[in-house]
Structure formats: structure tokens, C-alpha cells
Design goal:
Helix 4 crosses helix 5, helix 4 packs across helix 6 and helix 4 packs parallel to helix 8. This protein is elongated. It is mostly helical. Helices cover 66% and strands 0% of the residues. The protein is built from eight helices and no strands. It has two domains: 38 residues; 147 residues, Four Helix Bundle (Hemerythrin (Met), subunit A).
Length: 190
């Protein structure tokens, strides 16, 4: 993997901090800034790329899958390109998992309805239906269940019920791997 020039990274970090310090000193740190820092182009995949990779029979679901994966790209950029501290990094991971499970839910819904199967409001039930119908493999089903268990703990109002949960890069990677396996299974559908 190519390594960026450390001086460029240091300069970008320093300049971003200087901008934030200037805004803070002016009492404007919570306000929108103009001009804005341009997000680097080329990192976020196009919606068309995602529509082609995760084909859906329903256009609305396909669009939502693509847009959610673009949001996931933004979170991935933050995770991979920044030195994010405190609990904010875990929150980025947490909402990366939420976005992946949303995509999984959309893909499963699209597949079940295209097979004319009755869809439940519960993803767990829909995953079982997809497994029982042979739409997804037993291995994929197991991975999706694990990701869903992690996702089910992400409810702000249920912390007392769910308990404290930590989220790390391995959780992010598991969610992405489960989505990739699902995509492979769905590509093999007839």
C-alpha cells in the first residue's frame, strides 16, 4: 500500500486544527463554515457502482441500498483516514454496523418479495425464511445472525436492557464480510 507523504498529512492536520481553533476563538465552532473543506473525491463509490454490485428488483430499494453504502463510505473514510479519539471512533463503527444491517435488511426484503414469500417486519424472521428457501447458505445465515445480534444492542433507549457494548474494527469487518457473503449468495439466485 502506498504511504502518503508524512509532511502532507502533518500539514493537513495542522491546518484543520488551526481552522477549528480560529472558529472556536470567534465563538463560531458550532456554526456552519463557509467556504467548506472539500471532501476528497474518488473515495466514495458512485450510486451506480453500488446498484450494479447489489442488484435489486425494486428501484427504490436499490437506490436506498446504494445511498446507504455511500454513507458507509464516508464513515469508512473517517475511520481509515483520521485519528479519531474518545468514544467517537466507536460511534463511527457502531453506525457503520447500523448502515450495513440496513443494507442487509433491504437486500433480504427485495429477495424474499421477488420470490413471492411473505415478509415479516422482523429481520431475524426474514433471514430464517431466506435460509429455509435456499436463498442464502447456512454459513451466510450464521454470519448474518451474528451481525444482527451486534446490531440489536444499538438502541439508545435500551442501554439498561442491552448493557454496555463496545464496538471495534473487528465488528465493522464482520458486518462487511457478512454483507459480501450475502451479495455472493444473492448473485447465485436464479
Amino acid at each position: 500500500m502506498p504511504v502518503p507523504d508524512p509532511m502532507k498529512v502533518a500539514t493537513a492536520s495542522r491546518l484543520l486544527q488551526e481552522i477549528e481553533d480560529e472558529l472556536g476563538a470567534a465563538g463560531a465552532s458550532e456554526q456552519a463554515m463557509d467556504p467548506k473543506i472539500r471532501f476528497p473525491r474518488g473515495f466514495i463509490n458512485t450510486a451506480g457502482t453500488y446498484r450494479a454490485r447489489f442488484r435489486c428488483r425494486r428501484k427504490g430499494i436499490g437506490d436506498n441500498v446504494a445511498y446507504t453504502l455511500q454513507f458507509h463510505d464516508v464513515l469508512r473514510w473517517i475511520l481509515q483516514r483520521t485519528d479519531l479519539g474518545i468514544t467517537a471512533q466507536r460511534m463511527v463503527i457502531k453506525y457503520g454496523i447500523v448502515s450495513i444491517v440496513s443494507v442487509i435488511e433491504g437486500l433480504i426484503y427485495d429477495s424474499l418479495t421477488s420470490h413471492r414469500l411473505v415478509v415479516s417486519k422482523k429481520l431475524r424472521s426474514n433471514l430464517k425464511k431466506a435460509k429455509d428457501a435456499g436463498i442464502i447458505s447456512l454459513v451466510t445465515f450464521g454470519l448474518l445472525q451474528e451481525v444482527l445480534r451486534k446490531r440489536e444492542k444499538i438502541h439508545l433507549h435500551l442501554y439498561e436492557i442491552s448493557g454496555t457494548e463496545t464496538y471495534d474494527l473487528s465488528d465493522w469487518n464482520s458486518a462487511v464480510a457478512a454483507l459480501q457473503m450475502l451479495a455472493e449468495d444473492l448473485t447465485g439466485e436464479t
